[in-house]
Design goal:
The protein is α/β, with parallel strands linked by helices. It is built from four helices and nine strands; from the N terminus they run βββαβαβαββββα. It has helices at about 40-50, 75-85, 105-110, 155-165, and strands at about 5-10, 15, 25-30, 55-60, 90, 115-120, 125-130, 140, 145-150. This is Glutathione peroxidase.
């Protein structure tokens, strides 16, 4: 169960995901120098719209894709706060693929090897992939800790709104 996992915050302290029990949350691997970095605005908008209804965004910077998340954990969190006014929690940098991948992301990929990806016409279609292909892959978790949806990086936060609303 997802609540069994511990992650590190930006101060390198262990934090149990049990903290989010009973909430809907979005787990995202992010980067500050990525073509999708502007999605921070949309993620913050989702957080502001739904935080009072029990919604959280969990931001996990990842430097695994073309080194697009350089800097310390604190620098990455500060960048997001100053440039995108984020108020949701940024955690310590993780790897999402390979032998050194975060156990949390291994679990998420195992639970949901199918993601929704955006077509050229803007519609969403399912794509089977266990591996995380790039930054800003998003996993939606329901109030019971179930991984219910996975979204490809090209799926913008505003496209996720209906799925969040359904769970809230």
């Amino acid at each position: 169960m997802i609540y069994d996992y511990e992650v590190k915050n930006i101060k390198q302290e262990n934090q149990s995901l049990e903290k989010y029990k009973g909430q809907v949350f979005l787990v995202v691997n992010t980067a500050t120098k990525c073509g999708y970095t502007k999605q921070y605005e949309g993620l913050e908008s989702l957080y502001q719209d739904y935080k009072d209804k029990g919604f959280e965004v969990l931001d996990f910077p990842c430097n695994q894709f073309l080194m697009q998340a350089p800097g310390s954990d604190e620098e990455l969190a500060e960048f997001c706060q100053l440039n995108y006014f984020t108020t949701f929690e940024t955690f310590s940098k993780v790897k999402v693929n390979g032998k050194d991948a975060s156990p949390l992301f291994d679990y998420l990929k195992e639970q949901l090897p199918v993601q929704l990806t955006k077509n050229k016409d803007g519609s969403l279609e399912e794509e089977t992939t266990k591996r995380i292909k790039w930054n800003f892959t998003k996993f939606l978790i329901d109030r019971n800790g179930n991984v219910v949806k996975r979204f490809a990086p090209n799926v913008t936060p505003d496209m996720i709104k209906p799925y969040i609303e359904e769970l809230l």
